[in-house]
């Protein structure tokens, strides 16, 4: 982002946990962003912290089933990462996706870190109305998402209203595989409108 020419602007698209990284980029480079699209993504804001969303996500998500935890700071400390298990992916992430996409995901899977240092996370992900809040946002809801359920998506929308909300029906968390044509259609509309 820093290397973009002053007159260049981009549209950011983030999915799932990618919403956090995208939000930090929005805070740091608001003048370079035409719009940010949250595709069933975590969407923190100035009045809705990543920590708050994470705790609500974990409360609603339930069991991580056959996932494997990593304890890089020793077994007496909280886990530092989780590698999602095949049964979890099949039942909560890819339940409507083509089987070949689940198979590919299993072969590419890497551990997902936990953000255990809340003070550090709050400091590094602080979002302001002046920067983050100046970027136009679109949220794409996926109605049969069992990972970031529709009710959590709607809660983030309610507590941190974007400029626009779009819905893709009959899709799981992996909308890129279950309804790619509809997703790309929406992304095209957003590019036409905001770029």
UniProtKB/TrEMBL annotation:
<dbReference type="GO" id="GO:0080032">
    <property type="term" value="F:methyl jasmonate esterase activity"/>
</dbReference>
<dbReference type="InterPro" id="IPR045889">
    <property type="entry name" value="MES/HNL"/>
</dbReference>
<dbReference type="GO" id="GO:0080030">
    <property type="term" value="F:methyl indole-3-acetate esterase activity"/>
</dbReference>
<feature type="domain" description="AB hydrolase-1">
    <location>
        <begin position="8"/>
        <end position="182"/>
    </location>
</feature>
<dbReference type="GO" id="GO:0009696">
    <property type="term" value="P:salicylic acid metabolic process"/>
</dbReference>
<protein>
    <recommendedName>
        <fullName>AB hydrolase-1 domain-containing protein</fullName>
    </recommendedName>
</protein>
<dbReference type="Pfam" id="PF12697">
    <property type="entry name" value="Abhydrolase_6"/>
</dbReference>
<dbReference type="GO" id="GO:0009694">
    <property type="term" value="P:jasmonic acid metabolic process"/>
</dbReference>
<dbReference type="GO" id="GO:0080031">
    <property type="term" value="F:methyl salicylate esterase activity"/>
</dbReference>
<dbReference type="InterPro" id="IPR000073">
    <property type="entry name" value="AB_hydrolase_1"/>
</dbReference>
<dbReference type="InterPro" id="IPR029058">
    <property type="entry name" value="AB_hydrolase_fold"/>
</dbReference>
